[in-house]
Design brief:
This protein is mainly alpha-helical. Helix content is about 70%, strand content about 0%.
Length: about 200
Amino acid sequence: MTTKPLRLFITAISLLSVLGLSGCMLAANNEEKTEESIDYLAMQEEAAAAYRKKQYDVAEKKYIKIARAVPKDADAWFKLGNIYARTNRPYLSIKAYREAVIRDPSLSKAWHNMGIIHIRLATTAYISLQEHAGRNEPLRDPAIQRVMQLNELLAGKKKDDMVERVGLTPDMVEKDDARPDMDSADGAAAEKPLP
């Protein structure tokens, strides 16, 4: 049988061993986090470089990893939205833009681009209606009108009419409001509209 002081000594040694191992584990976890941070920064740089070079398949994979690693990163979702739009995946682009504005509701570029994609999808739907509806279909003629209206909207025509309906003054609306706002890495607006 062991005595009370010997039990206390064994308990103390056991406790110190556990604390020592816990300290080692915490140190190892901190080193892993530092390595993950370095990997994250490197991945951000690699993603941005691939995006600038229009290597969208590479950039997409990197931005997905970034979005998973840093869930609050609205920019990663915005870039994914742009990648999906440029690679003709409109539904994924809308989903990515939504994720971006959930994280940063003031990200006007994401709202803008999402609106452009929705207009393009609506135009496609009305064109499909025209192609597949018979000549006597009552919705065919309104669909033709909608396509013309949506094309005017995308082209920025009849802006004064739209501005008046929404209650804005012409000086509140930019000249090129129908173009998507897909920034390059340096912050300058892209020259081409969404594909």
